[in-house]
Amino acid sequence: MRRSLTSLAILAAVGAVLPAQAADYVTEPTHTSAIFEITHFGAGINRARFDKEEGKIKYDPVAKTGQVELTIDASSISTGVPPFDGHLKGEQMFNVAKYPTIKFVSTKFHFDGDKVSQVDGQLTIKDKTHPITLKATQFACYQSPMVKREVCGGNFEGMIDRTQWGMDYGLNMVAGKEVKLIATVEAIKQ
């Protein structure tokens, strides 16, 4: 009997450290955000975030594969300054009336050991699609005490040239060409 309990304890301990298994995940909105940073007159950094995103993720840490499809409501952009938000939503920038969504679809997951290290994909803004790479600055899976399911997520960063998406307003005068993207994603296993 003692041997059975010891074996059971060992199996439980091993199970606690085994990696996540292949599964489908849905992004959790309170822990998922898309942010961008861009220089302003070379003096400072303007930051904005999108407050409404939704996504689906397929993740298999054993096979070291994954897929992401993230859709962002472009009209949910927020800088904390309503007139600036209005400018960003307007025709000179995101033109949210004509292009209401921004989309990221992954093409490949890269791993460093057992952890996701980068995700390659296609970013669509204003009906223009170009490849981007988002590097993981952190990544983990955990058993959530709140939702009683596995949650996987991380922080991903990359740089883009905004002119590729036809966003040329204020180029080299007001704002720079290079834009830093920061995506924080947590997704719940279904």
Distance between the termini: 37 Å
The CATH first-level class comes to Mainly Beta
Low-confidence sequence ranges: 1-18
Total count of strands: 11
Query: Structural class, from helix and strand content?
Result: mainly beta
Please state how the strands of the largest beta sheet are arranged side by side. 1-4-5-7-8-9-10-11
Count of helical regions = 2
CATH fold assignment: Lipocalin
Instruction: Note the run of SSEs as H and E.
Output: HEEEEEEHEEEEE
Q: Give the count of structural domains.
A: 1
Radius of gyration: 20 Å
Overall pLDDT metric:
90
- What CATH architecture label applies? Beta Barrel
Strand portion? over 45%
Report the biggest beta sheet as strand number plus sense, adding barrel if it closes: 8 strands, antiparallel, barrel
CATH superfamily: Lipid/polyisoprenoid-binding, YceI-like
